[in-house]
Design goal:
heterodimer, A: alpha+beta, 2 domains, 4-stranded mixed sheet, 4 strands, B: alpha/beta, Glutaredoxin, Rossmann fold, 4 domains
C-alpha cells in the first residue's frame, strides 16, 4: 500500500539538504514569494505552493506566514493544508526515490522495483504516466518511465555517487 | 466533414502567419517523452543532422513510441518510434523527401489533430484551424452558440456525461458576475488525456473556453490544473500569453467581450473530481465537497453562478461548428498491450473494445478484462468486447488492460485502498465506509452480504461520488470474477 510518511535511514545528496545560511536564504525566498501574492483568502493554496516550491516542504513558519498574509486563522490554515495530499508538512527524506503504485504500474512490476531497492525507494500514488509503467521519480520529482530493477539500481547508485 | 469557415477577422489574423512550408523533424518532448530519454534523442538528432530543421513539440499520444520524432513535410508526416534504440537512416531520408506515405500516427481529425504536431508557437497552430470556433461564436448571439452546442449533442467528457448546452443555459439565465472553472485536475489513476491535450494543443482549450464564455455570459475564468501536471500548466500559460498578445482574449481580434483567465494549480486529491471541491479550493476553503443543491450553475464560486467544464469537453467545444463535429472520445489506454497511449476513437456505433485492443496491439483472447474508470470504475469482461462503445459507457475513458495472469483480488484491493486514502473525511459513509471496505476485502472467501450492504450505504449516503462510486469496482469484480475471491 502506498504511503507518504515514515522514515528511511540514509542521507544522500538532496536539493533540500543544506547548510544553515542556505536554508535561511531559501526561507526568505519562500516568505517573499508568499508576500507577493494578493492578500486574499483565495490565495491560500497558491501561497502554500509558492512556499513549497522554494523549500521542498511546508515548515511551520511558512504555514504561519501564509496564515498572516491571507488573514486566515492559523488553525484553519493547517486544517486546509492537511486536506491536500501533495502538500508536505514534514521534510522530504533526503535521497529517497519514489515508485508509482497506481494500477498500471502495480501490474507492470512496481512491487518488484520496491523489493529490489528496499532502503532507497518508497511507494507513491499514481503519477499519471500509466502508458510508460512502471514509473519512478527522483527526489527532485524528475520522472522516469519503463523502469527495470537494474535501471533503478543503476540510477540510485549514480545519484549516490 | 466540413470545417467551420474562418470569419473575416480570423482570416485576417491567419494572414499574418503564413505557413512555413519547410520540412522539419519534430521531436516529441512532452512529459512522457522526457521520462524515457527524449532529451538525449533531441541532442543526438541535432548532432547527427547538422543544418536540418529540428523543432521540439509535445507528445502526440503515442506513448508506446516514446521517445519519438515525427518528420513533417507538406504532404504527410511520418513518426519514427523508440529512437532511444538508435536513429535510423530512414529518418534523414524521409526528411529529404524519400519515405513511404504511410503515416504511423493518429489524430487525423479530432481533438488530437494538432497534438504533438506543432512546436508550441502560435504561428504553428493558427493556420491549422485554431480559434475557428471562438471567432465564429463571437459573430453569434449567446443563444445561437448554445443551440449549436445542443445540436451537436455534446456531453461532459469528465465522466458525468451532463449535456454541455444545458449546463451553459442554466448559467446563462442568471445576470451579474458569473464564472467558468476549467477542471484540469485529472486525478484518476489510469487517466492522462487532459494533460496531453493541454501540453500538445493548449490553444484548442482556449478556443473552447472563449466559446463557453460567449454562451454563458462569463468574463472570468479559472483554469484549475493538476499540481503534478507542470508541463501542461507551463504550456497553457505560454499559449495564454500568445493569445493575449494577439488580442484574442480582449475581443480585439474577433470581437466579443473581454475575458480574463487565471491559472491555478491543485495539490492532489481524487476528491477534486467533484466540482464543488475545486470551487472550495479556489476560494481558499477546505477541499471538501459541498451539499448539492444548490448546483454550481446557480451558486458556485463565491455564491455566484459558475460553469464547471472538463478540459476534454471544452476541447470538443472547439469542433461544434464543424459539420458534422467529430464524434470522438479520448481513451487513455495502459496495461497489457504492446502500444499503450492516448487513443481517439469514433463513437459512431462501429467501435468496439475488440477494435481498440487490436489497434493497441493486443487481442480479446489475451485479455481477461479491462478496468474502465479506475477506482470509480468497473471491469469490462470479454462478453462486452463486441458491444459498440458509447460516450456514457466510457465515462472519463481511462482503460487499464489486465494481463492474463492478473490478480483481480489484489487489483480490487488496491483500488479500494486508493479510495480510502483519497477520502477527504467530510462525510461519515465515505470516511468510515471506504476503510471498512478495505478490511472486508482482506477476508477469504469474501463475505458478499456484508460487502453488498456496505456498498449500498456508500452509494446512497456519501456526500460526493468518490464515496458514491467507491464500491463500484468491488461489486464489479465480485460479479465478473467471483473465483478471485474464493479460497
Amino acid at each position: 500500500m502506498a504511503t507518504r510518511g515514515g522514515t528511511i535511514g540514509l542521507v544522500m545528496h538532496s536539493p533540500w539538504s543544506p547548510d544553515a545560511s542556505d536554508a535561511q536564504a531559501r526561507m526568505g525566498e519562500a516568505l517573499a514569494a508568499v508576500s507577493r501574492l494578493p492578500r486574499e483568502r483565495t490565495q491560500l493554496l497558491p501561497g502554500f505552493l509558492a512556499a513549497q516550491e522554494a523549500l521542498g516542504w511546508l515548515p511551520r513558519a511558512a504555514v504561519e506566514h501564509v496564515s498572516e498574509h491571507t488573514r486566515v486563522p492559523v488553525a484553519e490554515v493547517y486544517a486546509i493544508a492537511t486536506g491536500y495530499s501533495e502538500l508536505r508538512l514534514t521534510p522530504p527524506e533526503p535521497g529517497a526515490w519514489y515508485v508509482c503504485t497506481g494500477v498500471a504500474c502495480d501490474m507492470a512490476g512496481a512491487g518488484a522495483l520496491l523489493e529490489a531497492t528496499p532502503d532507497r525507494t518508497r511507494a507513491i500514488d499514481c503519477q499519471f504516466l500509466c502508458a510508460l509503467a512502471p514509473v519512478v521519480h527522483d527526489d527532485a520529482e524528475r520522472l522516469y518511465g519503463r523502469v527495470t530493477a537494474e535501471d533503478l539500481q543503476a540510477r540510485l547508485a549514480e545519484a549516490a555517487s | 466533414m466540413t470545417r467551420v469557415s474562418p470569419t473575416p477577422a480570423l482570416a485576417r489574423l491567419r494572414g499574418d502567419f503564413p505557413p512555413v512550408g519547410r520540412a522539419r523533424v519534430l521531436v516529441h518532448r512532452g512529459t512522457c517523452g522526457n521520462a524515457v530519454g527524449a532529451e538525449a534523442v533531441a541532442a543526438a538528432l541535432r548532432a547527427s543532422m547538422p543544418g536540418a530543421a529540428i523543432a521540439e513539440g509535445a507528445c502526440d499520444g503515442a506513448c508506446w513510441a516514446a521517445p519519438s520524432a515525427t518528420v513533417q513535410r507538406e504532404a504527410h508526416s511520418h513518426r519514427f518510434a523508440r529512437l532511444d534504440r538508435g536513429i535510423p537512416d530512414e529518418l534523414a531520408a524521409c526528411l529529404a523527401g524519400q519515405c513511404d506515405d504511410e503515416y504511423a500516427g493518429r489524430g487525423e481529425y479530432g481533438l488530437l489533430e494538432r497534438v504533438g504536431r506543432n512546436d508550441g508557437s502560435f504561428g504553428d497552430v493558427i493556420g491549422r484551424g485554431a480559434y475557428g470556433a471562438a471567432a465564429m461564436a463571437a459573430t453569434l448571439r449567446p443563444e445561437q452558440v448554445i443551440e449549436a452546442v445542443a445540436a451537436s449533442g455534446l456531453t461532459g467528457r469528465g465522466g458525468a456525461h451532463f449535456a454541455t448546452a444545458q449546463k451553459w443555459r442554466l448559467a446563462a439565465q442568471h445576470t451579474g458576475q458569473k464564472y467558468l472553472v476549467v477542471n484540469a485536475e485529472e486525478g484518476e489513476p489510469g487517466v492522462f488525456k487532459d494533460r496531453h491535450l493541454i501540453e500538445g494543443d493548449p490553444h484548442r482549450l482556449i478556443d473552447g473556453i472563449l466559446v463557453a464564455c460567449r454562451a454563458a455570459g462569463v468574463d472570468t475564468v479559472f483554469v484549475y490544473v493538476n499540481g503534478q501536471a507542470r508541463n501542461a500548466r507551463a504550456a497553457f500559460e505560454r499559449a495564454l500569453e500568445d493569445a493575449r498578445a494577439q488580442g484574442i482574449l480582449d475581443g480585439a481580434a474577433f470581437g466579443g467581450d473581454p475575458v480574463t483567465v487565471e491559472v491555478r494549480s491543485g495539490a492532489g486529491g481524487y476528491v477534486c473530481g467533484d466540482e464543488s471541491v475545486i470551487l472550495n479550493s479556489i476560494e481558499g476553503q477546505r477541499p471538501v465537497p459541498r451539499y448539492k443543491p444548490p448546483f454550481a450553475t446557480d451558486e458556485g464560486l463565491w455564491g455566484r453562478p459558475t460553469v464547471v467544464n472538463n478540459v476534454e469537453t471544452l476541447c470538443a467545444v472547439s469542433t461544434v461548428f464543424d459539420s458534422p463535429p467529430p464524434p470522438t472520445k479520448l481513451i487513455p489506454l495502459s496495461g497489457a498491450v504492446s502500444r499503450p497511449g492516448l487513443y481517439e476513437v469514433p463513437i459512431d456505433g462501429n467501435t468496439t473494445w475488440t477494435g481498440v485492443l487490436a489497434t493497441a496491439g493486443s487481442a480479446p483472447g489475451l485479455v481477461p478484462g479491462i478496468l474502465l474508470g479506475g477506482p470509480s470504475g468497473r471491469f469490462v469482461t470479454p462478453e462486452e468486447y463486441e458491444v459498440p462503445l458509447t460516450m456514457r459507457g466510457l465515462g472519463a475513458g481511462g482503460a487499464v488492460v489486465l494481463p492474463r495472469d492478473a490478480d483481480i483480488a489484489e487489483v480490487t484491493r488496491s483500488l479500494a485502498a486508493y479510495n480510502m486514502r483519497e477520502s477527504c473525511g467530510e462525510c461519515t459513509p465515505c470516511r468510515e465506509g471506504t476503510q471498512r471496505l478495505v478490511q472486508l476485502l482482506e477476508d477469504v472467501p469474501a463475505n458478499r452480504e456484508r460487502i453488498a450492504a456496505l456498498i449500498e450505504t456508500l452509494t446512497e449516503a456519501s456526500l460526493c461520488q468518490l464515496g458514491g462510486m467507491a464500491g463500484r469496482p468491488v461489486a464489479s469484480a465480485l460479479e465478473s470474477f467471483p473465483e478471485a475471491f474464493e479460497e
